[in-house]
Write a structure and sequence with these properties.
The chain is of the alpha/beta class. It contains four helices and five strands.
Length: 113
């Protein structure tokens, strides 16, 4: 996952990539640290054209998290064509994220390949 350090970098990534997953987490968040590698592995295996970003809300970019209205961790946002498609907050499974990604990802990349 690509670390994001400011709002401009986040906005640039959302504009540059047709499909983006943003994980908002923190170093002190045990759940965040547990799902980050599993989420990365799932994306690499099943959704290789999706850009994966990571925002550390407990680090120097905490203000970015507040600007994005992220006040609890972990949060996963799915973006397609610059529009927020789905948001998962605190209690969710990787299977839910997978299901939410399958249809729009397949439609986006099957049509534009």
């Amino acid at each position: 996952m690509t670390p994001v350090t400011d709002r401009a970098a986040l906005e640039a990534a959302l504009a540059a990539h047709p499909a983006v997953l943003v994980l908002y987490g923190g170093q002190a968040c045990g759940v965040c640290q547990a799902i980050k590698p599993r989420l990365g592995a799932m994306l690499a295996a099943e959704f290789p054209r999706l850009e994966a970003l990571y925002v550390d809300c407990q680090g120097e970019v905490a203000a970015l998290c507040a600007q994005q209205r992220v006040f609890s961790l972990p949060v996963v946002e799915l973006w397609f064509e610059g529009q927020r498609f789905e948001t998962f907050v605190r209690a969710f499974s990787l299977a839910e994220v997978r299901r939410a990604l399958q249809r729009p990802y397949a439609a986006r990349f099957a049509v534009h390949d």
